[in-house]
Amino acid sequence: TTVRGLNRIAVPTLLVGHELDQCRFSPVSDAVAFRTLLTGAPRVDVKTLSGGISEGPPCEARAYHGFNGIDQEVVDLVTAWLKTNTPSR
Prior knowledge:
The chain is of the alpha+beta class. It is about 25% helix and about 15% strand. It has one domain. The protein has a two-stranded parallel sheet. It is flat.
């Protein structure tokens, strides 16, 4: 599968994954390769989370794929990252 246009992203970018995500469309191991496609981004951070629980199909919200049980940790991580990486107006 080819992902086109990622080189046109020109803003800081955060990639977040779960270490136990079993969804075949988003293995955490792909984050490093995906990062290399973001050549226009001035900064690319990759964060891998753990914990939570997995219930149901691997690509659904109640699995590790959906960060089930660690929702607040994800919100806090993304919020802190945005505050640090969003320019002041």
